[in-house]
Amino acid sequence: METHISKFAMVRLSEYAEIKPGFAFKSDRFTDKSSDIPLVKGDNVQQGYIDWTKAKFWNSDDVDDYRDYLLEPGDIVVAMDRPWVNAGLKWAFIKAHDPKCLLVQRVARLRAKRGLSQGFLRYLVSSKYFASYIEPIVTGVNVPHISGKQIGDFRIPLPEIDIQQKVAALLATYDDLIENNKRRITLLENMAEEIYREWFVRFRFPGWQEAEFEKGLPASWAVAQGDDLFEVIKGKSYSSEEISDQLNGGRPFINLKNFNRGGGYRDNGLKYFRGEFRDRQQVNRGDVVMAVTDMTQNREVIGRAARVPYLGETDGIISLDVVKISAFSWPDLFTYAHLRYSGISEALKELANGANVLHLKPDLIGKQKYLVPDTPTVEKFVKLIEPLYEQIEKLEQQIQMLECTKNQLLPRLISGKLSVENLNIQFPPSMQSDSSDSADEAAA
């Protein structure tokens, strides 16, 4: 959104928002106790959310002196060191269900002042308008960074407070629907995992009471080497000129950013490839892929399996950081569940090595031993969990449509091109407790 096309007055962000950096908490006093207060640091601020799994903690008995750095629901945080990564701007906001937490240095907290809605501010920060402002002003060679002053110099459109609140409420309605779908997906995935563990880890599969066991395994089951069970197909090497963020006649390109840290597919990281490839490097709906490279020493995605969703009318291509695992006889859905829930992923990631970039040799995947249940049990399992994954796929498609609609609306709403002045918009549940908006509404 260009500033000159906004119908609203343009003002500096610092005039209407408090921009407060976090405190320099001593790292030698960090704890790993989940009962303590989690710290919001630059490395656990992601694109639109806080990754609490990466959080360090501060002694919960030592909070009184740091109350100015406690974060509240609705607070917006922006990473000041390495604020821009390949996936986008590192920003997030504190949700009502997030834990009580403290802000660490080199992360800025944004709170709206009188005249600016906190909800409206959140959507300004989440917009491409703000991202396009931040990306070119990041400075520093070893540690790219931005300053509080640079954030404050960002110029924002400022409609009347009631317009701001209506815009935020409309966009938050989409976010609430998206979050609800994500919660339902998590529940369905948890159900699938629990069924897998009940059958193939605890061996309480249908008919287990009458089954014969030998050396702790059902007598009709076996253990085999991966090479006898599936083929590991390497991905496509590529140049930067062959990759784009836009379709532009290319094919969906499955890469590391398509893997969630806990396994599973992540649509936000999809790229597009234009170039030559081999037929074997193509993937489509239901194919099983695995990350064999990791850009962090924390081994976040390496060894993780994902199931390729519907990608459109053309097949996708896998990058050299990804392999396709094509089973000789197992259904793809069982292959996916087996790789994701059996614990083999944790074993595989420990086999990765490398100085700056970790790499798992694809051959090692086939050298591991895998549990081989009998065919009738596998077929019963797939029949039971297939409806769960069909529901998951539908919910994921709904999320994509909601995200697309919201992203189309956002720039038009905050620029004033799409007027909400005469619309009767109700605050969604997620905005009911937004104190900054409520205060402005009462004063209006």
Q: Give the proportion of residues in helices.
A: 25-40%
Q: pLDDT under 50 segments (min length 5)?
A: none
Distance between the ends: 28 Å
- Mean pLDDT across all amino acids: 91
Gross morphology is globular
Beta-strand percent range: 15-25%
Structural class: alpha+beta
| Biggest β-sheet: strands ordered side by side in the sheet | 17-19-18-24-20
User: Tally of extended strands?
Assistant: 27
Number of helices: 9
**Main β sheet profile:** 5 strands, mixed
* Rg over CA atoms: 24 Å
Describe this structure in words.
The longest helix has 41 residues. It is built from 9 helices and 27 strands. A hairpin with a 2-residue loop joins strand 13 and strand 14. The mean pLDDT is 91. Helix 1 crosses helix 4 and helix 4 runs antiparallel to helix 8. With 444 residues, it is α+β, with helices and mostly antiparallel strands. The protein is globular and about 75 Å long. The strands form 9 sheets. Strands 17-19-18-24-20 form a 5-stranded mixed beta sheet, with no helix packed on it. Strands 2-11-6-9 form a 4-stranded antiparallel beta sheet.
